[in-house]
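1st attempt posting a full record on here, be nice pls
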Amino acid sequence: MKLTKEEQQMFNGEMGEAAQQSMEILVALGKIYGAEKMVEISSAQISGVSYKTIGQAGLEYLDDLARKGARVKIPTFLNPAGMDVEQWEEMRIPKDFAKKQLEVLDAYGKMGIMKTCTCTPYFIGIRPKKGEHVAWAESSAVAFCNSVLGARTNREGGPSALAGAICGVTPEYGLHKDENRVAKLLVTVKCELKTVADFGALGSYVGKMAKTNYPAFEGIKSNKEEHLKVLGASMAATGSVPLFFIKGVTPEWNIADDAQRIEITEKELKATRAEIDSKLKPNLVTIGCPHASLDEIGQIAEMVSKKKPTCEFWVCTARKTKEDAIKKGYEKPILAAGGRIVADTCMVVCPLEQMGYQITGTNSGKAAAYLPNLCKQRVAFGDAEDILYR
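the predicted structure (as C-alpha cells):
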C-alpha cells in the first residue's frame, strides 16, 4: 500500500504504540482487500459496546489501548450499550453486568470517544454528506449512511472502526469506490407498504434473497427516514446488505446490466410477516430498532395515552432524542401506560434472558432476526398497534 508520510510514521511507531497497532490493523485490511491507499474519514462509529457482546476479553483490549495512550483524531461515537446508564436499576439489569458495562464506556471515554450510544446517529445531527468517507460499524447505520445519505463506508468491525478513528483514515476499497456501488438485484414492489412492520418484513425477505448482492427497489413511494432505516436494518440483519437504492428516493441509482429481477407482492409480504411472528402474547414490547426518532416516540405516546398496553414496553432511542422527547411531553403518557423511554441501549444487546423475559414483541425485522439467537427470545412480530395490545 502507498502510505503518506504521516501514515508511515504511525505504522513505524513514531506516534506511539496505540497508533502503530491501529495502523497495522488498517494496513492488514487494505492488503486483504487489495486497497492501494488510505482515504481520510470524517467520522467513525464503533460497534462492540455492549459488555454482552464483547465480554471480558473485549474490555481488556479497550483498557490496553487506553493505557497505551490511544486517542481518536476525528469525531467518534458509539453503538448502543447493554443498558441505559441512568436507569439500569429500574430496568432490572444485573449489578455485575452494569459494573462491567460502565467500565467499557469509561475505556472508550478515555480515548476521547463521544458516549452517544446510538445506532441512529443521523437522528442526532451526525449526517455525513453525499460522497463523504466515514468508517461506521453498526450494520443498520452503515446501510442508512450509504443508501439514504449517499456517504461512503464499508461495514467495519469494531476494532477496524476504532483503528480508523485513532488514525483518521481507512483503506480505500469496497464501497469507498464508485465502481463497487452497483445493484445486482432489482426488486419491483407491487404491494402497499403502510407501516414500519411492513418495511421490516420487506427487508427481511429481500435480505435473504439478496445475500451479498446490493438491491435496488422500484415501486416504494415512501421517503420517510423512519421507514428507510427499518428497511435497511432488516436487510443488513438477514443478508448483510450495506447498500440499497430506491428509485426517486435515494441519491444514487446504479444497476448492473445483468441484475437479477424479482417481484414482491402482497402474498410474499404476508407470508414473511407470518413466518417471523410466533403469534404469542409478549411479556415485553420493544419499539426502536434501529433507535426511534422523535416523531416515532410522539406517535407511541399518543397511542398509549388513548389505551393502555397489555404488557410492559420500552421505546429505545438515543439519549439526546430522549431529552427532546421529555421536553415535548412524550415521556409522561408513556410512563403512565406502564412503559419507559430507554436510552443508550436496545433489546438486541441488552441481557433480556437474564432479566426474566422470554417473549419479546417488536415491529423491527432486524430485532426479529437477532432476538432468538442473541437473547434466547421468542418473537411476537407485528405493527405497534398489534403487539402492544395482544
